Amino acid sequence: MQTRRETLRQSAVVAGLLATAGFFPRDALAAWNGHAFEAKSVADVMKAFGAGAPAASNDVTLTAPDIAENGAVVPMGVATTLPNVKHMLILVEKNPSTLVAKFDTSDAVEPNFLTRAKMGQSSDVYAVAITNDGKAFFAKKEVKVTLGGCGG
């Protein structure tokens, strides 16, 4: 009977061998946009995705509480009725990393997503829809946090 530690060590060795042999798909890493997740402002996130300044739109909806009792788990939802949406984003303006979530969509996917996010303090939250032609549309809501979730 193997211990959990031995199993993890052996799994790491196998993963390392597969990576050096080139068996991991490079396309999976190509989809990761590290610059967007490291961005410190809404404008920087839009720049990382190649989109212009977002415009307010009634076709994008954001669902979030007015007051979050615990900033460690704030429920949020984004949806849109816009056609040709490529990405749906959730941004929290005052978080250490502004981009909280990114969802890739296509015509086969209904652009309606729910998640939970950490918020360190009260902030404006944005739901952003980026279309295939690089246009960005947003909905915004202020969420007040009573107990911080990012180390607070």
UniProtKB/TrEMBL annotation:
Gene3D superfamilies, per database record: SoxY domain
InterPro entries: SoxY, SoxY_sf, Sulphur_oxidation_SoxY, TAT_signal
PROSITE patterns in alphabetical order: TAT
Residues covered by the Ig-like SoxY domain: 47-150
Signal peptide, first to last residue: 1-30
Keyword Acyltransferase in annotation: no
Keywords: Signal
Domain of life: Bacteria
Pfam families for this protein: SoxY
This protein's name: Thiosulfate oxidation carrier protein SoxY
Origin species: Caenimonas aquaedulcis
Gene this chain is encoded by: soxY
